[in-house]
Design goal:
Layout lengths: L2 E4 L2 E4 L3 H8 L2 E3 L3 E4 L11 H5 L2 E3 L9 H11 L7 E4 L9 H16 L3 E6 L9 H13 L9 E2 L4 H13 L3 E4 L3 H8 L16 H12 L9 E4 L14 E5 L13 E3 L1 H12 L3 E5 L6 H10 L7 E5 L2 E3 L6 H9 L14 H7 L3 H11 L6 E3 L1 H15 L2 E2 L1 E2 L2 E6 L8 E5 L11 E5 L2 E5 L3 E2 L9 E2 L3 E4 L4 E9 L5 E9 L16 E2 L2 E2 L4 E8 L24 E9 L11 E4 L3 E5 L7 E6 L5 H6 L1
Parallel strand pairs: 6-7, 7-8, 13-14, 15-16, 17-32, 19-27, 23-24, 25-28, 30-34
Antiparallel strand pairs: 1-2, 3-4, 4-5, 9-10, 10-11, 11-12, 18-31, 19-22, 20-21, 22-29, 25-26, 26-27, 30-31, 32-33, 33-34
C-alpha cells in the first residue's frame, strides 16, 4: 500500500485528498480550520499543523465535509427540523481509537448543528456482553468531553417492539421460521459469484411461523434448531439480502433483561429500527456497513416505524503500528500479552487515558485526520504529535533522574540547605513556581557524567563545568569507584554566585543537566512505554500479529528520583520530566508510579527511514 508523506506524517493514498487540503494551507476539519499565520507564510506545508493554533468555526464560515453538507442541506430544505445522531457501541469490549473518531464525529455533528446525539448500547448478543463494558464505555465518552442526549438507550429496551415487528413481517409474508442448521443455511446461501437457493421452509404458512416464533421465544427449542429469517431475494447480488436472519435462539441471561428472553434479534434487524424509534435522522457508520445499507432501508420500508432514518458511511480510522480488531485486542488481554484493556500500550481509550493522553489531544487528532468517504491508513506519528503538542503547551515541568548517580559538593556546607525556585512552565505564567531544595548531596543521571569525553559531550566531565538546571554551575573533580571499578559517586564543587549568573572568572558551563536534592526528593518507579508493535502493519497479509509484539514496549525503572513536589502528584496528572519526556502518575497503582506518555521527540522517525 502506498503512502503520501506530509512533513513527518504519512497517510495512505486513499486519504490523499486531505493531504491536498493541508498543502494548500488550510486544514479542513469538522469543528475548526487551521490557517497559516503571517509569520510563517513561507513555511513548509506541514507547518500549519505544527505551529498554528485553531479556532472554532461556525457552519457558515468553514468548508464542510460531505456529512456536514448532507445535514446542512437537509436542514435548509426542511427535511428535518433537528439533527439527531447516535453513537451505538456493542458492549463486548473497550472502545479503541477508531471508536474515538466515531464519537467525535457523531457528537460533533450534533454540536455543530445544535442537535442531539444519543448514546445507545446495541446489546443484542448476551454471550459476549458485560456490564463492565457498559460502564467503561460511558466513562470513555464522558472523559472525551461529550454528553449524550437524555438517558442512556439500550437495544434491549426495544425488545418487545422488535418482536412485534418481527410478527408483522411474518403476517405480511416477509419473514418465516427456518429449520435449516447453520451449515445447511450456509450452503443454501450461495457465494459471491453464485446465487443462493430458497430454503425448503421459505413458503411455510404465516400462522405456522408465528406459532413457531412464539415457541422459540418461550424456550421450547434448542439453540441452532430454528431461526427467523426475512424473505427478500436469495438470488440478490448483495449477499446480505439473501433472506438474512432476524432472530436466533440464545438461552443465555442478558445483563439488562435477565432470563426474560430466549431469542435475540440480530444487529442488522435491530439497528435501523432502533434508529427509527429514537428519531435518529442521520445514522452514521463506517464503510464496512455500506453493503448493509440496502437491508437497513428494506426494514425501514417494510415495517411500521415512526420515523425514516437514513444511513451514511465514512472511512474508518486505521492506524499503523496498531491493531483495532476487538477479537485481537481481547486476545492480547486474555493471553496476558498486556495487563488488561487499560494497559497504556493498548489503543483503547482507557489505555490512552492511563498512559497520559488528554481528551483534547485525541479530539484534535480526530479533527486533523478529517472525514472522508474512503478507508485509509494514518501514521500513528500524527496521534503522537497531537499529544506531544498538547503536553508541551500545558504540562507543568519537573526534574526527574531515572538512573541516579550521587554528586557530593565538597565545598558546600553539609548543614546548609537552600530553597531555589523554578518556573512551573517556561511559557505559562499562570502555573505556580516550583520550590527546589538544594543541599550538599545531589542526584544526577548516570548518563550525564563521564570521566573523559570529546567536545560534543555537553554534560559533566572531570575538570569541566556544567550548570544544574535552575541552580549553580558545578565543576567535577573526582569519580568515586567501588572495588569492581564502577562509579558510585562524583565529587564536585559549586561555582559561587552562579544561580542565575555567569561565573565571575568568565569560564562558562558547556551544558545544562537535571538534578534533585538527595536529602529531600521523591522516589518512585517509572514505566517506560513504547509502541506495542514493531511492524507498521502487524496483522496484514495473514501474519500472526503476536509475532510483531515489541519486546521493549515496556521497561520498568525502579528507584528513580524526582523533585519532592511529585509526591503530591494526583492520579493521572501529567508532567514534562525535563530532557526525558512526558509522564503521568499511573491511575492503576496505589504506589507512586509514573507512566511515560510520549518522548520529547519521535524516536521512531529515523528507524522508519532506514
Amino acid at each position: 500500500m502506498s503512502y503520501y508523506t506530509l512533513g513527518r506524517f504519512k497517510v495512505c493514498a486513499l486519504a490523499k485528498m486531505n493531504l491536498r487540503t493541508l498543502a494548500e494551507g488550510g486544514y479542513n476539519t469538522r469543528f475548526c480550520q487551521y490557517r497559516k499565520s503571517s509569520n510563517i507564510s513561507n513555511a513548509r506545508p506541514h507547518l500549519p499543523i505544527l505551529q498554528t493554533s485553531y479556532r472554532f468555526m461556525s457552519v457558515e464560515d468553514k468548508p464542510l465535509n460531505f456529512l456536514e453538507q448532507i445535514i446542512k442541506k437537509d436542514l435548509e430544505e426542511g427535511v428535518h427540523q433537528q439533527v439527531v445522531t447516535r453513537f451505538p457501541p456493542e458492549p463486548n469490549g473497550y472502545l479503541h481509537i477508531g471508536h474515538a473518531k466515531a464519537i467525535c464525529l457523531n457528537f460533533g455533528l450534533a454540536e455543530t448543528f445544535e442537535g442531539a446525539c444519543n448514546l445507545r448500547f446495541d446489546d443484542t448478543n448476551p454471550a459476549k456482553e458485560e456490564m463492565a463494558y457498559v460502564e467503561a464505555i460511558k466513562s470513555d465518552v464522558e472523559w472525551l468531553g461529550f454528553k449524550w442526549s437524555g438517558e442512556i438507550r439500550y437495544a434491549s429496551r426495544y425488545f418487545d417492539t422488535l418482536y412485534q415487528w418481527a410478527q408483522h413481517l411474518i403476517r405480511e409474508g416477509n419473514a418465516y421460521v427456518c429449520d435449516l442448521t447453520a451449515d445447511q443455511a450456509r450452503e443454501y446461501r450461495g457465494t459471491l459469484t453464485e446465487a443462493g437457493r430458497n430454503s425448503p421452509y421459505r413458503d411455510r404458512p404465516a400462522e405456522e411461523s408465528l406459532d413457531l416464533l412464539e415457541r422459540m421465544k418461550n424456550g421450547e427449542f434448542d439453540e441452532g434448531s430454528k431461526a427467523l429469517r426475512a424473505k427478500i431475494d436469495m438470488a440478490s447480488g448483495n449477499i446480505n439480502l439473501r433472506d438474512p436472519i432476524l432472530y436466533r435462539i440464545r438461552k443465555q441471561a442478558h445483563h439488562q433483561t435477565g432470563t426474560e428472553w430466549c431469542i435475540y434479534p440480530t444487529y442488522d434487524f435491530a439497528h435501523g429500527q432502533e434508529d427509527a424509534i429514537e428519531g435518529v435522522t442521520h445514522s452514521i457508520c463506517t464503510l464496512e456497513f455500506a453493503d448493509h445499507r440496502p437491508l437497513y432501508d428494506w426494514f425501514i420500508q417494510h415495517l411500521p416505524v415512526p420515523t425514516k432514518p437514513k444511513q451514511y458511511e465514512f472511512g474508518r480510522l486505521n492506524l499503523n503500528y496498531t491493531v483495532t480488531s476487538k477479537r485481537k485486542l481481547k486476545q492480547l488481554v486474555d493471553e496476558k500479552h498486556v495487563d488488561g484493556w487499560d494497559d497504556p500500550r493498548m489503543p483503547t481509550v482507557a489505555g490512552f487515558r492511563r498512559r497520559g493522553y488528554t481528551p483534547a489531544s485525541i479530539r484534535k487528532f480526530c479533527d486533523m485526520i478529517g472525514v472522508t468517504k474512503s478507508d485509509g491508513v494514518v501514521d500513528v506519528a500524527m496521534l503522537e504529535h497531537a499529544i506531544r503538542d498538547d503536553l508541551d503547551k500545558n504540562a507543568p515541568r519537573a526534574m526527574c533522574v531515572l538512573h541516579p548517580l550521587k554528586v557530593v559538593l565538597t565545598n558546600y556546607d553539609a548543614q546548609k540547605v537552600e530553597l531555589l525556585t523554578a518556573p512551573g512552565h517556561p511559557n505559562r505564567d499562570d502555573l505556580p513556581t516550583r520550590e527546589l531544595p538544594f543541599g550538599r548531596e545531589l542526584y544526577i543521571d548516570v548518563e550525564d557524567f563521564r570521566e573523559e569525553a570529546n567536545k560534543k559531550y555537553k554534560r559533566l566531565v572531570i575538570g569541566k563545568r556544567v550548570r544544574l538546571r535552575n541552580a549553580y554551575i558545578i565543576e567535577a573533580d573526582e569519580a568515586i569507584k567501588n572495588d569492581a571499578g564502577d562509579i558510585i559517586a562524583v565529587h564536585a564543587r559549586i561555582i559561587e554566585n552562579t544561580v542565575g549568573n555567569d561565573p565571575a572568572d568568565g569560564i562558562k558551563a558547556k551544558g545544562v543537566i537535571q538534578w534533585v536534592a538527595a536529602h529531600d526528593c521523591a522516589e518512585f518507579t517509572v514505566n517506560l512505554y513504547d509502541r506495542l508493535f514493531t511492524e507498521a502493519s502487524p496483522d496484514s497479509g495473514g501474519k500472526d500479529f503476536l509475532e510483531s509484539i515489541n519486546p521493549e514496549s515496556l521497561t520498568i525503572v525502579a528507584n528513580c528520583k524526582g523533585e519532592k513536589g511529585l509526591l503530591q502528584a494526583c492520579l493521572g496528572e501529567g508532567y514534562q520530566f525535563e530532557r526525558e519526556g512526558y509522564f503521568c502518575r499511573d491511575t492503576g497503582s496505589t504506589a507512586l508510579v509514573f507512566n511515560r506518555t510520549i518522548g520529547l521527540r519521535d524516536s521512531w522517525a529515523k528507524m522508519d527511514q532506514k
